[in-house]
Amino acid sequence: MYGINDSKKLTEKKREALFDEIVEKALAYKIIFVGPEIIDRDNILNATMGGMRQAVEGLDIVPNLVLVDGNRTPKDLLLPAQPVVKGDATSASIGAASVLAKVSRDRYMLELDQQYRGRPTRGGCGCPLLPETGLPAGGPQLQPAGREIDLILREPDGTLVFCEVKTRQPDSLTTPAEAVTPAKQRRILRTAQLYLQHTNQSDQPMRFDVAEVKPLDSGRWMVHIIKGAFTA
């Protein structure tokens, strides 16, 4: 397949074209989304390794060898595996996987963008920005005592929206919103109050949403926004 490379070195147009070609021609592929709750619980390295294992186990065929981009492989992987440093630039299969991952992530952000049209601008990474601070709203904004809020956005009427993003795989028995437990809600509320104090916006109206994200087989995402999911 011509043109496969490290996804970061490809244009958006090229990545999108390759995505469709890879999905059509690959013997098997699996896209896994690891949500922020898993990263918080397991740390980024273990969450990444767990996502790799899920992807391999979800393939329609059993590979003879698993190539992993980087310098380590998941410890609990039951198949032979080999790490490949800078593999996305040297291995066609790893490069193809990086394209699937990058395009899937970008499409996910676009789905959120469709849900929150009130934002005035976006950053170069595809993440929304808060107009007063320029902080990217697509990742952790404030992390007091290890806590974080996934998205902070502003509606046209000035309302600040603190959005918790929750993801579940299609075979999960629970909905993403059910993961936002009362204890989690209290942590979000405390973090939001700290954010408002930190940015001198304590008098601003605010709302707490939950974004339920479910991956589709097409590589796109179904995003359901529950506005006002809980209150202060």
Concise summary:
With 232 residues, this protein is α/β, with parallel strands linked by helices. It has helices at residues 12-25, 36-42, 44-57, 87-90, 92-115, 182-198, and strands at 66-69, 81-84, 151-154, 160-167, 206-215, 221-230.
Report the sheet with the most strands, covering strand number, pairing sense and barrel closure: 4 strands, mixed
Q: Can you write the helix and strand succession as a string?
A: HHHEEHHEEHEE
Widest β-sheet, arrangement of strands: 3-4-5-6
- What characteristic shape results from the CA principal axes? elongated
Mean pLDDT: 78
Measured as a percent range, the helix fraction is 25-40%
Binned strand content = 15-25%
Class by helix and strand content?
A: alpha/beta
Using only C-alpha atoms, the radius of gyration works out to: 19 Å
**Could you tell me the number of beta strands?**
6
Low-confidence segments = 118-147
Distance between the termini: 53 Å
Number of helices: 6
